[in-house]
Amino acid sequence: MGDVVSYSREGEIAYITVNNPPVNALSLPVRQGLQQSFQKFAADAEAKAAILICDGRTFIAGADITEFGKPPEDPWLPKVIAEMEACEKITIAAIHGTALGGGLETAMGCHYRCAVPAAKVGLPEVTLGLLPGATGTQRLPRLIGPKAALDAMISGKPLPAGKAHQAGAVDEIVEGDLKAGATAYAKRLLSEGAKPRRISEMDVDKSEIDQHFFAEYRNGMARATRGFFAPEQILKCVEASVTVPYADAVKRENELFMECMMSTHSAAQRHLFFAERACTKVPDVPSNTPMRDIKKVAVLGGGTMGGGIAMNFANAGLQVVLKEINTEALERGLGIIRKNYENTVAKGRMTPEQLDECMALITGAIEYDGISDCDLIVEAVFENMALKKEIFAELDKVAKKGAILASNTSTLDIDEIAAVTSRPQDVIGWHFFAPANVMTLLELVRGKETAKDVIATSMAMAKTIRKTAVLVGVCFGFVGNRMFFPYISEAQQMILEGVPAERIDQVAFDWGMAMGPNGVSDLSGLDVLDKVNSEWKDRPEDPALWIVVRKLVEIGRFGQKTGKGIYNYAGRSPVPDPEVTAIAKAEAERLGVAQLENVSDEEIIERLMFSMINEGALILEEGIASRPSDIDVVFVHGYGMPRYRGGPMHYGDAVGLDKVVAAMEKYRKRYGDTYWKPAPLLAELAKSGKTFDQWAASNG
Ligand code: T1G
Prior knowledge:
Blueprint: E1 5-10, E2 13-18, H1 28-43, E3 49-54, H2 77-85, E4 90-95, E5 98-100, H3 102-109, E6 112-115, E7 120-122, H4 136-144, H5 146-155, E8 159-160, H6 161-167, E9 172-173, H7 178-191, H8 213-222, H9 230-241, H10 246-261, H11 264-278, E10 296-300, H12 304-315, E11 319-323, H13 327-346, H14 352-361, E12 362-365, E13 376-379, H15 385-398, E14 404-407, H16 414-418, E15 427-432, E16 441-445, H17 452-464, E17 468-472, H18 480-496, H19 501-511, H20 517-524, H21 526-535, H22 547-554, E18 567-569, E19 574-576, H23 578-591, H24 601-621, H25 628-638, H26 648-655, H27 657-671, H28 673-676, H29 680-688, H30 692-698
Parallel strand pairs: 2-3, 3-4, 4-6, 5-7, 6-9, 10-11, 10-13, 11-12, 13-14, 14-15, 16-17
Antiparallel strand pairs: 1-2, 7-8, 15-16, 18-19
The structure holds (2S,3S)-3-hydroxy-2-methylbutanoyl-COA.
(2S,3S)-3-hydroxy-2-methylbutanoyl-COA binds at residues 22-23, 25, 58, 61-66, 77, 98, 100-102, 105, 124-125, 128, 130, 132-134, 136, 277.
């Protein structure tokens, strides 16, 4: 029994303690230790009850995800749990922190479960493209009913201990010290003559299952789980829980678990699990870097972005000063914020009291001295370099010493902005994504002189406001937009070549994108794209580049905001417009752009995705992103790329970089080097049969 699991006894109560930091994951030594400890308990005649408890910050938080993809090693978790459950003496799981996945499954292998009020329990395997593969799909329905179990497993969301207690997943809530509370509970059970209660011997309550239940559940989850593989497998397991005996259903669960484990979806979603943790680590900024104290925040500019940005800080309980240029603009800005909150209340996701609390945290100012005591100032004004320089020059005069001066610019050069101040070390980009109070991505743009404590403070503050922050370098468009430009360019080029915009969008949507490139262009605003086109540094010399966007902007078709763009918008749903097709055709003729017949879906995806992957390789070579997985996090959190694709760089690895480069050669022959010459890094990896992931690992 390794030191990750220990056995001890105090009187008639045995304690089986797991100590496997950081989250007591069920690595092989832990599984072995559990098996041996429960055998020891069974053989210990003095022990009348056993408590399974964990050291550290949490109960077992699941199987050890780092073991996935390697050959499974005995003892398998289902086997350990079955042996635990077979104990003739009662066993109690004592839960604190988060009992998740295999952790909850192990707790369900105990005969009783107690938890402290702040604990949470859940089966989040679906977030990893998996299903609860250690009998969770069979035990949870027996404990809380099939509907509640499905809700928990399909959403992957943990239940707070109180709700789990009400539902029947936790038998006892213990206040105060967990070990003492669990011991008292065990003694009480013994005094009541409680017997081992084995979930596997229970029946599922079928009272809520009629002939339509599963079909209706399938329909109900379709939108939220579109394209994902694992949810349907979970549903099949729960169907088995009410149709076949436990042992057969467990066999079915195991088969479907292996299908999930071997799926490209799970590989992608597990990749993202680690990617989202890796991106919080900045290679040259130690995790113990002292941080600046942020108590009060200012947001300059009360437009849509500024309002959304201000909400993020208020939602985290921070005081925010919204600064505008005059009272009218300020009132309008505060009105935008209130309206956003009112919409959230109307959707039932916020109470009126919470709205009032947040609004009370947001005050207004029209003079700079109203923000001179703020610790962090986020500029969110119009995307114009001259205006931003003017503002930062003013901030340099009025902001308190040590204040972090952030710009929400989406493309402009942070170094150029910093250079107008006497404190370039305090300047950083905080690039939010619209809607700023909804999208989880935040690109932190590091200038040449940005101080390490500014970076560390920004990373920590991002977590406070529940954003996924990725540190990027200075270039036109940073990481996300810079890679999105070729994606949009390919969509635009195909429209010129006669491919219907709606076909391009449908293929992208079916691939998994939340919205196709043309719908996104209309959402962002064709006028915004056109402005980028005119400000694009080192823009490719190509008169056809985004020419349809320009022509549409010239006739006032800006997209959703004007009711017409690439599509017409009666409501929010896009309707193709023959006028746009005619404009594209006319421009194609004027520019001599050949029309394409019979474009395959495969070509559409290759041109959309591989153009991004190539740009991503250039970004890595230039050091604008620290790792390929950081780029993946950007696209999953900021551009609606589905988690089951893992992000553009992971997708390239999954396809095979040799295949990516081979496909690019087809387009290079048709369109030349400007867009389709493989980045040196990509060409090198393709040639050597390596992946971006392997490159990242070798690059430390
Ligand atoms: N396996 C291995 N490492 C893990 C891990 C796990 N299950 N969970 C977390 N870590 C690492 C993580 O990579 C990070 O490492 C450190 O622990 C702190 O994590 C059979 C098959 C528990 C809520 O999906 O949700 O059980 O970066 O930064 O914010 O049916 O970790 O420090 O080197 O996230 O306090 C199911 C996954 C697995 C839970 C804590 N369980 N973990 O959050 O810390 S599949 C899960 C979490 C399974 C069974 C199936 C969170 C947390 P490093 P952290 P946190």
